[in-house]
Automatic annotation (TrEMBL), chain A:
The keyword Oxidoreductase does not apply. The keyword Iron does not apply. It is a multi-pass membrane protein. GO terms for cellular component: mitochondrial inner membrane; proton-transporting ATP synthase complex. It is found in: Mitochondrion inner membrane. PROSITE patterns: ATPASE_A. Belongs to the ATPase A chain family. This is ATP synthase subunit a. Its main location: mitochondrion. Keywords: ATP synthesis, CF(0), Hydrogen ion transport, Hydrolase, Ion transport, Membrane, Mitochondrion, Transmembrane, Transmembrane helix, Transport. It comes from the Eukaryota. GO terms for molecular function: hydrolase activity; proton-transporting ATP synthase activity, rotational mechanism. The gene is atp6. The chain crosses the membrane at residues 39-57, 92-112, 118-137, 149-171, 183-205, 217-243.
TrEMBL record, chain B:
It is found in: Mitochondrion membrane. This is ATP synthase subunit 9, mitochondrial. Mitochondrial membrane ATP synthase (F(1)F(0) ATP synthase or Complex V) produces ATP from ADP in the presence of a proton gradient across the membrane which is generated by electron transport complexes of the respiratory chain. F-type ATPases consist of two structural domains, F(1) - containing the extramembraneous catalytic core and F(0) - containing the membrane proton channel, linked together by a central stalk and a peripheral stalk. During catalysis, ATP synthesis in the catalytic domain of F(1) is coupled via a rotary mechanism of the central stalk subunits to proton translocation. Its main location: mitochondrion. Residues 10-72 form the V-ATPase proteolipid subunit C-like domain. F-type ATPases have 2 components, CF(1) - the catalytic core - and CF(0) - the membrane proton channel. CF(1) has five subunits: alpha(3), beta(3), gamma(1), delta(1), epsilon(1). CF(0) has three main subunits: a, b and c. The gene is ATP9. GO terms for cellular component: mitochondrial membrane; proton-transporting ATP synthase complex; proton-transporting two-sector ATPase complex, proton-transporting domain.
From TrEMBL, chain C:
GO terms for molecular function: proton-transporting ATP synthase activity, rotational mechanism. It comes from Naumovozyma castellii. GO terms for cellular component: mitochondrial inner membrane; proton-transporting ATP synthase complex. GO terms for biological process: mitochondrial proton-transporting ATP synthase complex assembly. Pfam families: ATP-synt_J. The gene is NCAS0A06260. This is ATP synthase subunit J, mitochondrial.
Amino acid sequence: MLNLINTFINSPLDQFESQTFFSIFTPFMDMNNFNITTFALYTFIVLFIIISLFMFTNNNNMIMGSKWFITQEMIYDTMVNTIKNQMGGKLWGFYMPFIYTFFMFILVSNLLSMIPYSFALTAQFVFIISLSFMVWLGMTIMGFYKHGLVFFALFVPQGTPLVLVPLLVLIEMMSYIMRSLSLGLRLAANVMAGHLLMIILGGLLMQFMSINILTTILGFIPLLIILCVVMLEFAIAMIQSYVWTVLMASYMKDVQYLH
Amino acid sequence: MQLVLAAKYIGAGISATGLIGAGIGIAIVFAALINGVSRNPSLRDTLFPMAILGFALSEATGLFCLMISFMLMFMGA
Amino acid sequence: MKRFPTPIVKPLWPFFIAAAVTYYGVSKFADAYGNTDEYINDPRNPRFAKGGKIVDLTKNKETMEE
């Protein structure tokens, strides 16, 4: 618990370090997975925010929602329209809660990481890439269970001449396998690069503005530029969650209906 | 091995030039959006979400290159 | 708060299997990565909390030279 004393930031990468706040001494079994680290703490904060967004806005579970509940309805309607447009067919309703969960988690944790001195959950590469790998592997298992060996018909686009088929199947299979990695890598790389850029620019501007009074006044112009970068980061935080959702719905459509 | 350390930093700097492709790709996507909207202002329904999706996908490939730069700088023995 | 009976196991069972496979795989990978030559003596390694000692890396080189 004494890790809280060292709060200096020595390198721009320190913001992504995960510190342990609370761990139990278990000499016989490796229960290190149940430590309370910053990662666990921020996951609890995200859960608390998502639950309280629902609990504090519905007015006593009445059917006619309050004006605050319109935010939740907006997010829900965006998700329903997106998934219905992407997937379509008869099966979009079964997978809607799953995709909605991902959207809310990534949106809230991205926006939570924009608070200064906070921790970016979605910038943890191993977490996000293993999450996208789990999604991809689950979809592949579902495809093989549902279609059997006809699942490989996904790799042949419609109307290709028979000569090109072996080469095309290899290329499409490579592209399909890369989906597992790229879905998570896109999110983690965007968030990590954005946060790293903001910290480096902020540190440099702080050093520049603390030289003397002339540079303090002169330093308001780069501050406006950094403000634009921060606004771009807010937009990217929300866009990345939407992109994850759209791509997940599109992959689900590929697997369920075999285009 | 100071040479390896110097080579790491030089490599990290050179590999950041891959982001030129990301910049051009994003500009192409939004140029297509402006073209499409100016011909037929059905913006809010169909074109804008596709433009946002295209922006994020094109930015992603640029950031794959930036990840190689980060890997060279902050990782590896 | 009411719990509605939305089906979670019936449409989403492959994701549970994939989550178990991913958990197993990442755990094995993390154990193997923590025992490579670079990180085997790092004090944050959970090996030390269970009574492991510092591994002398020059010992391997001695057995190879003989």
